[in-house]
Amino acid sequence: MLKIAVMVSGGGTNLQAIIDGVVDGTITNAEISVVISNNPGVYALERARNAGIDALVISPKEYESREAFNAALLAKVQEYNVDLIVLAGFLVVIPEAMIEAYENRIINIHPSLIPSFCGTGFYGLKVHEKALERGVKVSGATVHFVDKGTDTGPIILQQPVEVLEEDTPKTLQQRIMEQAEWKIMPKAIDLIANGRVTVTDGKVTIKNN
Ligand code: GAR
Fold first, then answer.
1. pTM for the full model?
2. Residue 110 known to be catalytic
3. 109 CB within 6 A, ligand 1
4. Could you give the C-alpha distances from 65 to 62, 69, 156, in angstroms and in order?
């Protein structure tokens, strides 16, 4: 049974898709051991508690230095002895020590087709603003492993989504969540939990059943 920590900063719709996936069998051989937020009072924490999952706040504001915060975050996932860390809208830079300790065991969802509209400064609605500014006809979402760069790790799954002429950043964000993020995030976790994902030379291979 793969033990998962989900890290969140906001509303937690991707967290909800994972919770639902475990319940409805889209995700097998996995359980969410803990949900960690850097923000107190976000709805993601309530979603976790409603599902009977430990929900914790580890906020940089509670620590005297970034190093102390980073150490606390790493200590907490180690305490829960998790096998996989899932960043589901977690808008904090992941400490290097955590990336080293969990190589190819941290995954992130990004709301574009990487390598478009990603990297430093591209998060949340900003990604969709930039996509609309550029006039792309297709956007989407990507689940990838986390390495030391920003959105540069091995790509696991991508799902394209059509951009409509009347889209605003908000309507595009919503459609990408519904048609891509909430599908490929649970799917990627299920593939990992069932030993179907391998990484070689920075590239992911998915084994067939
Ligand atoms: C999602 O759209 C996710 O792709 C994005 O934040 C949102 C979180 O929503 N993540 C990033 O932009 C990371 N660079 P949620 O809290 O409802 O899951």
1. 0.97
2. yes
3. yes
4. 9, 6, 34
